[in-house]
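Researcher: Here's the sequence for the chain we discussed earlier.
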Amino acid sequence: MGVAELDKENRHLHLMAQIFFYGDASGETLSREIANDIQLHWNEPQASVLINGVRYKVVFTIHGMHAPFLKPTDIYENDLPYNNYFRVEEYSNIDISFVDDIGSNTGYFKLANLLNNSTTAAHEFGHTLGLIHPHQLDIRGAGTPGIMYPRGTIVDTHFQYDPAAAPATKGGTLNPIYRKVLQQDIDNLRLDKLIFNKNNQAVVGEFSSVWHDKHL
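Model: Thanks. This is the structure I predict for it:
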């Protein structure tokens, strides 16, 4: 979830969000690194959007904050659309990271998913903005996988965990390190359909406002 703001003078569309991280595996350094990783991936394509006949460059600004003293009521009572909340733990009882809904502002990160250039944080952030997994999950011949393709997607061999593996076998599916945010991912956000207020701002996503206990 975030806030989109039109800078008509410079022809920029700024998409801004801040993410509060809590849980035993969270920390100040990790929080900054996750936010920077998300921002880097979503700004990588130097994407643009056409709004009312004017083309705007899309610029993401993501802030990450370690929030060790966060309380459930801080999430339940939050009414600022900039704010997102993710618990970070070494263990997830479904063995993956997740958001609470498509277009939400809360979720749960499994620590191992965030390491080694996995692109998981950028992928899950896409869900908070309303993006779903593509329906076609065999994209051989289509080139670089977009950020919203899930693990298990069948890709060209050089995007696999093991380039020598047969497609769809062990090692023969998408290695998430090869996912990238593409112009198509920005197009799928449908930023051109947002209704901007008198301050040239619009909300992207919705409040889910879920507090997560630690999985045991």
